[in-house]
Design a protein that fits this description.
The chain contains four helices and three strands, in the order βββαααα. The chain is mainly alpha-helical. It has two domains: about 35 residues, Rubrerythrin, domain 2 (Single Sheet), CATH 2.20.28; about 130 residues, Ferritin, core subunit, four-helix bundle (Ferritin, Up-down Bundle), CATH 1.20.1260.10. Strands 2-1-3 form a three-stranded antiparallel β-sheet, with no helix packed on it. A hairpin with a 5-residue loop joins strand 1 and strand 2. Helix 1 runs antiparallel to helix 3 and helix 3 packs antiparallel against helix 4. The longest helix is centred in the middle third of the chain and has 31 residues. The chain is globular and about 45 Å long. The protein binds fe (ii) ion (FE2) (2 copies).
Amino acid sequence: MAKVKVFRCRICGDPYIGTEASTQCPFCGAERRYFVEAKDWNPNEFNVELTTVEKEDLEAALKLELDNTAFYDCAKNAAQKAGDEYDIAKFKALMKVEREHASAISKFLKISRPELEKLACSSSAKENTQEGWEREDRAIKAYSKFRDEATSLRLKEFFSVLVEIETDHLDLHAENLQQIKR
Ligand SMILES: [Fe+2]
Ligand SMILES: [Fe+2]
C-alpha cells in the first residue's frame, strides 16, 4: 500500500487524507488540480483585501449558497419520505457541497457561516430536479458576473471554479431530467 498524505483543497480549504489527491474535492467539488499537500499550504489563501464590489458579490454568493443548501436539504428530506435512494444520495451530496461553498465564501468574508434556514420544496423528485437545474443556472450566471467583476486574481479563480462545479451540478440535473422523460 502507498503511504497516505494530507492534502488541502485551495478552493474550500478543507483537508483530505489519501495516497493521492482525489479527482474531485469531496467537500466542494473542485478538480484535483486545486489540491496541494498540507505542508505546502499558503496560510493567506483566504486573506484577500476585498474591494466594495468583491465584498458585495461575496455576500450575494453567500445568500445564494445558503438558499441552495436549504433547498437541497428539503429535497433530500422529500426523497427520504418517498424512499427514493438515488435522490436521497444526490440531494444530500448537493446539499453538502453547497454548504461547503457557503463556508468557503464565509472565509473570504471573515465571518462564521450563518445558520441555515428552512425552505419549502416540492414532494416530487422530478420537480425538485427541475428547480435544482434552475437554481444552478442562476448560480452559474451570477458567479460568471462576479468572476468578471473581481479585481483580485484569487477571487477570479474562486468564482470561476464555482462556475465549473455548478455546471457539473447543472449537467447532472439535466441528465436526470432526460432519464425521467424516457
Ligand atoms: Fe474543496
Ligand atoms: Fe455552490
